[in-house]
């Protein structure tokens, strides 16, 4: 499976310096400091990006959707392959994959 030039062996993820030299000029809006109606009434303009640190602290997806199954791919016959959120979180926390799994909510959108 692995060899001397694979992703993990060469520590490519840990040594990917180009991302370290990018200038971060994104304005941060702390969720705890801005009421929801103010954020809705004054959305960011198309030429101004904003980050919202703290948003995910309000969302305990790992608890709320712990046993919910999400699509993460298809098998050879075209049937959906699903994974529970709790197993996906474990996968995210323990894996450094060069081609990671993504999960989808097929009923969304």
Automatic annotation (TrEMBL):
Major place of residence: nucleus
GO BP terms, alphabetized: phagocytosis
Keyword Metal-binding found: yes
Keywords: Chromatin regulator, Dioxygenase, Iron, Metal-binding, Nucleus, Oxidoreductase, Transcription, Transcription regulation
GO terms, molecular function: histone H4R3 demethylase activity; metal ion binding; P-TEFb complex binding
GO cellular component terms given for this protein: cytoplasm; nucleus
Region of interest (Disordered), residue spans: 35-55
UniProt source species: Timema poppense (Walking stick)
Identification of the protein by name: Uncharacterized protein
Cofactor: Fe(2+)
Subcellular location: Nucleus
